[in-house]
Amino acid sequence: MMFDDIKAAIFDLDGTLVDSMYVWKKVDEDFLTARGIPTSEDYTDKMRTMFFETAAAYTKETYKLDESVEEIMQVWLDMAHYEYANNVRAKSGAASFIRLLKERGIKIGMATSNNPYLLRPCLENNRMNELFDCVCYTSQVGMNKSNPDIYLFTAKTLGVKPEQCIVFEDIPEGIISSSSVGMKTAAVYDESNEQFVELLKEKSDIFVYSYTQLIDEWKK
Questions:
Q1: pLDDT tens track of the chain, all 220 residues?
Q2: Which of 40, 84, 117, 213 is within CB 3.0–4.6 Å of 122 for a Cys-Cys bond?
């Protein structure tokens, strides 16, 4: 089994451990609706590719809002915080699978582009906050997941070599970059990555439709 030589598992959060990919689209829609502005697919698509502050500046300029960029960002964060703290749920079997890894002596890390304000209540709400030996953020390395730095940083924090890690991700960029530094990879299915399923299957060591599937295979 591919976990035989693994000493650490590194998990992404959004779309990998929790079903949260709906949150930001909901925030976009609710934010505009509250201001009497109709939503559009064009706006939503553009927002996906922007950094947080850039997206706020774009929104302010596009819709001529009186709020400052900082005020817009805080409103968005507060709206997202409510969802993460109350409504975002872990994928079926995710917590049980992590506990199974921990029972086998495998260290557990998280490498996320999210931030503590949203992550901590989400983990607490899903009773997963005690499962991780470390939580690392892309903001700590100053690079997004197209670069392997966040995965190398997490491995170093856990005290293991890259080749002793397996990375669980739902985006091709994360799978490809972590694989480039010798890490094993597990691509996790999420509705949001449907269009990338074949690419994820091609680039990862294993493709995971559900954590219950992994648990069942482990116990065979």
A1: 566 789 999 999 999 999 998 998 899 999 999 999 998 888 887 887 677 888 899 999 999 999 999 999 999 999 999 999 999 999 999 999 999 999 999 999 999 989 999 999 999 999 999 999 999 999 899 888 999 999 999 999 999 999 999 999 999 999 999 999 999 999 999 998 899 999 999 999 999 999 998 888 776 6
A2: 84
User: Cα-flanking dihedrals φ and ψ of residue 71, to 5°?
Assistant: -65, -40
Q: Which residue has the tokens 């299957």?
A: 201
Amino acid identity, residue 111?
A
Length of the chain as a residue count: 220
Structure tokens that stand for 186 in this block: 């597990």
Q: Residue 139 half-sphere exposure, CB side, CA atoms within 13 Å? A: 7
* Cβ count near 170 (within 10 Å): 25
Residue 186 to residue 134: CA distance in whole angstroms: 19
